[in-house]
Structure formats: C-alpha cells, structure tokens
Amino acid sequence: MKKKYWKQNLIYLRILLTVWFICSFGFGILMAEYLNNFYLGGFPLGFWFAQQGSIYIFVILIFIYVYLMNKLDEKYNLKE
Amino acid sequence: MDSQFWTYLLVGITFTIYIGIAIWSRAQSTKEFYIAGAGINPVINGMATAADWMSAASFLSMAGLISVLGYGGSQYLMGWTGGYVLLALCLAPYLRKFGKFTVPDFIGERYYSSNARFIALICAIFISFTYVVGQMKGVGVAFSRFLEIPFENGVIIGIGIVFFYAVLGGMKGITYTQVAQYCVLIFAFTVPAIYISLQATGNPIPQVGFGSKTMDGVYLLEKLNQLSVDLGFEKYTDINRTTLINVFFITSALMFGTAGLPHVIVRFFTVPKVRDARISAGWALLFISILYTTAPAVAAFAKVNLINTVSNARYADVPDWFKNWENTGLLQFDDKNQDGVIQYVADSQINELTVDPDIMVLANPEIANLPAWVVGLIVAGGLAAALSTAAGLLLVISTSISHDLLKKNLNPKISEKGELWAARIAIAVAVVAAGLAGLNPPGFVAEVVALAFGLAASSFFPAIILGIFDKRMNKEGAISGMIVGILFTAIYIFYFKPQLGGPGTPDNYLFGISPEGIGTIGMFINFIIAIIVSRFTKPTPERIKQLVENIRYPK
C-alpha cells in the first residue's frame, strides 16, 4: 500500500520536474533564440520566458504539487 | 522635507519595529531558539523565507546587473527562483518529517557518522560565513551613501541591531522580524517600480508595463533595443550564443545551490507538519517572485531613463543627482574629447561615462524624479534585505557550533539551559566576527558570495537528495562525494578567479564554463562518485533503511 504512495509521488515528481526543466532551461535558454522570433505584446517570447514566464511557472508548479500531494495523502490515509 | 530627513525617519521607524518584535518574541528553549518551536504558520514562514533569501544583492544589485547584461541577466532571475521548485518537491517535506534542528543533523544521522556530521558543519559554517560578511558590508554601504555616516559606524549600527534580536530571540525572534523586513523591502522595491512604469507606459503594473508601448507608441523593449544598437551595444533582448553555455551552467549552479543552502533549508524545520513544509515553499516563492519579476522591469525602465538623460547631454546641464552620484564614485565622467558633452557608447576608446550597476536601483527614484520619501524607502528596504539575510545566516553558524559541534560531538551531556546559553554566546561571537570581517573585508568577499552557491550545490545538494531517494547510499559514498565535489569546485574557483589570486585565464576554462557555473559540474561529480563508491562498499544498516522509509511518508 505504502509502496504505491511513494511510486505515485515519484511519477508526480518526474512530470513536474520535466515541465520545470523545459520552461527554464528549454524555453528560457536553449530555445530562447528561436522563440525570440515570436512576440508576446512587446516581449520577444524567449526573453519573456527567461525573465518573466519561467518564474510564474515555477510558482504554479509548486502549488500543483501541493494540491496533488494533499490528495494523495488523503487517498492513502497518510494525512497528519 | 529632503530625502535625508525621510531616510532618517524611515530607517528609525523600521529599526524600532525590529527591536520591539525582538523583545516580544524571546526564545525560552533550544527548540524555540533553533527552529522557533516548529510552530510557525506556513504563510508566515513563506514570508520569512523570502526575506531570509533576498539579500542586499537581490535588492540593491540585481536589477542593475540585469540592465547591464540584458538577456544575460536572466541567469540570476531563473537561477535564484527555480531552486524553490527543487526545495518544495525534493527536499523540504522529507527534511521536515525527519524533524531535527540542522542540516548537519540530517547528514550525521542519515549517514550514521559523526565524521559526516563534522564535514557538513564545516561546509555550513564556511558557506554561511562568507555570505554574511557580504551582508554586513551592504549595511555599511547603505548607511554611508545615504546618511553620510562613516562606513565603519554603519557596520557597527548593523551589528548592534542584529546582535540584539538574534541573541535574544534566536529563530523565533528572527522569524517575526523577517516578516516585518519582508513587508518593508517589498514595499520599498515595488513603489518606485510602479511610479516609473506609470511614467513610462501609463501602466501601473511593472511586469506588464515592461512589455507595453511607451508614450510615443513604440514598445519599450523595442525602443531599448534601438537605443542600445545606436550606442554600439548588443540588442537588449538578444541572446548571445557565445555566452549561452555559461548562462545555462550559472543558472543551474544557482538553482541547485539555492536548494542546498543551509539557512534556507532550516526554515522548513520551523513549520508544524509535512504538508505545511510543502505549501510554505510555494508561499516563499510567490513572495520572492514579486521582487524577481519586478526587477527585470526596473532594469529596462532605468536603462531607458539613464540613456535618455545622459547620452549626448551637455555636462553643464545634467541634473543634480548626476553630480551627487559622481561624488560617491558610482558615476564617473571623463571628458576625453573635451567637448563638454557626455558620450555614453560601447566603444571604450570613445566612451566617457562609467556607470556602477548598483546605481540603477539606488538612483532610480532621483533619475525618475520621484518624491523624496521614496529615496528613504529604498534605504530602509536595502537595510531590511541585508539584516534579514544576515540574521538567518548567523543562526546557522550558531546552531552548527552549539548543537552540532558542542552537543553532538564534544559534550553530549550538556543541559538544555547550558546549550541555550552556548547558542546565544555562539551567535554573539558570530555577529561580532562577521561585523569585523565586514569592516575589514578581504577584497574578494563580493566574489565569494556568488560562489557560495557553487559550494552548496556541489556539497549539500547531492548528499541530501541521495539521502532521501537512494536507500543504498551509505556513509562511504556520501562522504567521498561531498569531499570530492566541494574540493573540485573550490579549487576551480580559486584557480580561475584573478580576484582571489588564481593564475587561470578564461581561455583555459573547462568547456568554457566560468567559476560561477562550475558548481554544476561539481554537483555531477559528487553524484557520480557517491553512487560508484556506495555500490562497492558496505551496504547501509537496516535501521537507516527504516529511517529513510520513515521520512518518505508524512505519517
């Protein structure tokens, strides 16, 4: 039973950390030059990801994780 | 009323508040002194973490660096925020479940070895001390530039304030003062930003104004790109391919370093439950992101304002603030061609103006003609940022000595009361030592502060992650990983930093990685060494496997 909880936790981590990597190192750095061909208002898109977007996504990722884990704690009756 | 008056008034009021909080929240036990009794509300802890985290460098220097580097400044923005995702997902909940007082505590118990604990406490003290000296220096600078108090007296006033509330209140006093300091610093940072965003674009939200059109109908960033090109600089938003690899490695060293800094990790010991530790990291990053998304906007606005004001202006006509900042040495004008006009261009043969990046935040209110009280606010905010970070770091140093060294290594029979006194004495000594070092800073302090991240990334981060996620990781693996990782990183840094007397030149960088980014490689070396060594040495004892199993579940 507990093993499943841990496995599910690791799946969440993998997905969320992949998004974390793609949005910062991917969109913000490695792909930024290409993305700068597109615009978001006055922002070249790669520049926007590097100086604004990645930070918003980081915040959202943590709150998604908190939501998922609180549900998981309840499902496996591990809520303190 | 002039800005001097407002600065005295606002600094006086904020300092009185900090002292009041310290008296109100005295620590009665070691648990209160070390981790505020583990009774802090997660939102409050998020705010305290944000203040703990944002130092004088974040508040005073970061926006200026971004305005110089343009896109390249993104490494600080992503690097100093992305680590919180790692903290929330991979460290904070498990360390909270472990439920002890310090990071060396975790390393020592998880790796069943007082040697591991000792190495961890040396790393913790080394990282924290280099960092805190920079904060003390920041306090002295803020006082000396704005209040015309000599630098030394500024540092001494700073020591006095931190001494008072850290010695009296420990973590409990520090937590509640940090909450007040967060409010002061975030208000001080955003108010001028809102003003200049309104002035330039008519939009009060700097994060949006930064991507909007200016009054003449051109997008602000487009205008900035154009101005930069006209003066011979690179376009502000352009990505420089030759430095991209460094941006990648520096960003990652700062992220992993953040997740390995003891004064940040220990904040998650102060909340009551595992679920509080998770959400608390979310609040912390939310509070931090307010400053971190405003800073790049300030950088862009300030740069446009600066270029518009000084470029090709007649020296005789420049505003008063220009001359004031010239007196501090942060602005330097050298009329090379004797035409009485300021040439501010990329070509160093022709360029006549040297701008210290710090000026972008410090002089911003004056450049944008903001009211005098905003200047006072900036000073109070800068002091709040420096003092809150200094206090958090000093606590790590004092707990490392009184708890990890004295109680766990030298004298396990020490009484609760004795340990509390030892903690107070240790923090008092640490405050004074940091202040003295700040008064008389070795030239390289500023350099070393940025490098503390590389050291944390290459030592603590892998040891903690493996301790949680890899049951087979044993003491042999973790200790050899930490030692090799931190030594590799430290040697590379010393070798390649001319400011530290190193003989290396950038041509010889490993894969072109600068010392600021080398922590990333040090971290990978640590991981690899630890895993290989652990697979060829004695397996972890059964009780340690139980311990790891235990911290993985909230209940």
From TrEMBL, chain A:
Transmembrane segments: 12-35, 47-68
Pfam family, one: DUF4212
Keywords, ordered alphabetically: Membrane, Transmembrane, Transmembrane helix
Record-annotated Sodium symporter small subunit domain positions: 2-78
Protein name: Sodium symporter small subunit domain-containing protein
Native organism: marine metagenome
